[in-house]
Structure formats: structure tokens, C-alpha cells
Amino acid sequence: MKYKLLGRSGLKVSELCLGTMGFGTEAGWGADAATSFAIMDAYANAGGNFLDTANMYKLGTSEKIIGDYLGNQDRDYFVVATKYTLKDNITNPNASGNNRKNMMRSVEESLKRLKTDFIDVLYLHIWDDITPIDEVLRAMDDLIKQGKITYAAISDTPAWVVAKGNTLAELMGWSQFIALQVEYSLLARTAERELIPMAKHFGMTVTPWAPLAGGALTGKYLKGDKGRIKPESNRLNQRAEKITRVVMEVADELGVSESHVALQWTMSKGFQCIPIVGATKVDQLKDNLKTVDVKLSPEQIKKLDDASKIELGFPGDFFNEDAVKLNSFGGFYDRVEKR
């Protein structure tokens, strides 16, 4: 794999991130420790170095498995990203949320489970709509100064909150968020309305979760395998089926798997993007790793774009109206260009 810089930093990470939410067998599914080790071995052997986990994945088991694995590896080779926010114990009312107290407590627990002295990237997992964003960034900056985390990042948060946070950080001399983790795929493009333009403005790398829409974009659900997806899910409706069939057509044209097409599409959209690829089987990961060798033509990208197009709403669609551009701005732009 090739390496990319993560946001406006000098941190080099592989072009596919390994999602480890399935490491552990709690809730009746997932990979046991031995299989998880084999998956990480295959990923590292392919040049992968970017691991994504969270304090709550498999009730902490994901972090524990990664910690056991790193004990036998070159720790500095790997870039470990974890998250805080969601409750991982029931001992106190501040065991969840974005507040400073929970952040400090959660990071200490993650460090123990990961058996490491530092976390490379710490994400705020999900916005709680309570904690001031300056409290979050000041606390993350303190952890960076203490050497317990190296970079700050954020996930599942409104664009205006992230924008306010990075602006405050720039003004105050705090470390800014360098990555934004959101749901993004051919079936879920609403992040294009505000979140992705905001990330582009601040030079943040987008790390999409569910880039394969829970497997829906591989076409397996059209073949009768509903898995754990609920029948009413937007991953199984008529729109999803239409988009998935176009993915299957493009895959046939290229002679590759549907997952390669869906993943490569997220990497071909004109902004910094490193999709998170989860796996509970080695063969599953090895197949997804082949994505880096796939290239989509402009015509194929347009075909996928057209099939999955969404309404941007206001003001996105308003900006795209040719009549508005012509009547309101056209003459002005003409005058500017002539000068």
C-alpha cells in the first residue's frame, strides 16, 4: 500500500485503515484473538499500519487484543487510533460523554488495555450536544502535551461544531482535529452536504466507516443473505438495490469484486479519504486489500455518482442552479475575468 499524510500533519498512514470493531466474540459474532492476530499480520504484511478501534468495541476486548498483538510487534510501526465518549463502565454519571473527566478516565483505561504508553490518534466518538467544544480541544491538547496522545480527531459530529473547534484551536494555539470519521458510502452520501466540504476546508482527512454499507454494496443481500441487517434498513430498500446493481455492473466491467469498486469510489472523490475496512476473516481482508490496485475511469465514477446521487438541499442545490449563477453572478464574473 501507499502512504498518505493524515490531515494537516506529517503522520504517514496506509491508504486503507483496518477497522477492528469485530475483534472479540462478544454478542455472538466477531473474530477470536488468534484470528484477529492473523488479520493484523496479513494487513501489516501488505504495508498496512493504521488500526482503528474504540474503548467500547466488544466491551474493550478489541483494544485488549490489539494490545496483546502490539506486545510482539514494533509498536512505532503502527498508528493506533481509538475513541472515547461512549460508556465503558457503570460506576459514575461521568463515565460517558465528551467531558474532560470522561476523556481523561477513558484514555487511561485505553492505555492499559492497549498496553502502550501513548495513543497515536484519539477521536471524540460521537457528539453529546452538552460539552463545550473548547473543553474538548483544551483537554485533548493537554493530553498531547503529556505525551499520552499524539493527534486529535473527531467522529460523528455536526460540521459547525467541528469548524468552530478547529477555528478556536487555531486562535488559541491548541492542536487541531486532523481527521474526521463519518459514515460515507455510495448508499450514504449525506456527508457531502456539510461535513466533507468542511473537512476539505480545514485539510482534514475523512475516514469513512461502513464504506461497504455493512456489506450491502458487495451484492450479498441481493443473493438472499440478509445477515444481521434489519429488513427496514435503508441498506436494503429499492434505492440501495439500484445502486448496488450498478456497482455489480462496474465490477463486471473491470473483472474485480464489488467491494473493490465501492471502496475505490470513496478514494476517488477529490478529497483526502482513507476508508476503514473491517474484517473478521483473513480472506475477507485479503480480498479488500486488492482495492488499492483497482482504478475507476472517469466514466465509471460518473456512472456510480449518477446512480447514488442525493439532494444536497439548501444551500448546496441552490449554488448548483445554473439560472441563479447566470442571473445573479454571471455578469460580475465576466467583468472580473476581463480585468
From TrEMBL:
The NADP-dependent oxidoreductase domain, residue ranges: 15-307
Matching Gene3D superfamilies: NADP-dependent oxidoreductase domain
Keywords carried by this UniProt record: Oxidoreductase
Name of a matching Pfam family: Aldo_ket_red
CDD domains, per the entry: AKR_AKR9A_9B
GO molecular function: oxidoreductase activity
Record flagged with keyword Repeat: no
Gene Ontology CC: one annotated term: cytosol
Cross-referenced PANTHER family: NAD(P)-LINKED OXIDOREDUCTASE SUPERFAMILY PROTEIN (PTHR43364:SF4), NADH-SPECIFIC METHYLGLYOXAL REDUCTASE-RELATED (PTHR43364)
Protein name: Aldo/keto reductase
Organism, as annotated: Mucilaginibacter pedocola
